[in-house]
Design brief:
Elements lengths: L12 H15 L3 H40 L5 H11 L26
């Protein structure tokens, strides 16, 4: 039959011994090992900072370029001025619904 790993019938004295072993491990570390480990952690930390700054700079420049390209950095009145400048004012063309008869042609007159 299956027996769970968390058996509370077992004596808890084994856990006390494992805590003492952890204290011994920390006491056995030499200053040389600590210094080497500290330098490794510092170099990883420095690399992470540089990577974060580089990615932030690239994303910032990309966002700036994209906002300018889409015209989202302009003020509303600047956008209205550009629209007015792009639309040239064309003179209104006269719309003729009915054709006009030239004045040189005279209508026929019926004489009685």
């Amino acid at each position: 039959m299956y027996q769970p790993e968390d058996n509370f019938n077992i004596d808890q004295s084994q856990d006390v011994n494992s805590e003492k072993n952890l204290d011994n491990i920390d006491a056995n570390l030499s200053t040389k090992n600590v210094a080497v480990r500290k330098k490794q952690i510092e170099s990883v930390f420095l690399k992470l900072i540089v990577l974060g700054l580089a990615l932030g700079a690239i994303l910032g420049v990309g966002a700036y370029y994209l906002l300018n390209k889409l015209g989202l950095t302009k003020k509303p009145y600047q956008i209205e001025q550009e629209k007015q400048q792009q639309q040239p004012e064309a003179p209104f063309k006269e719309i003729r619904v009915f054709p006009q008869i030239p004045k040189s042609v005279t209508p026929p007159v019926d004489r009685v």
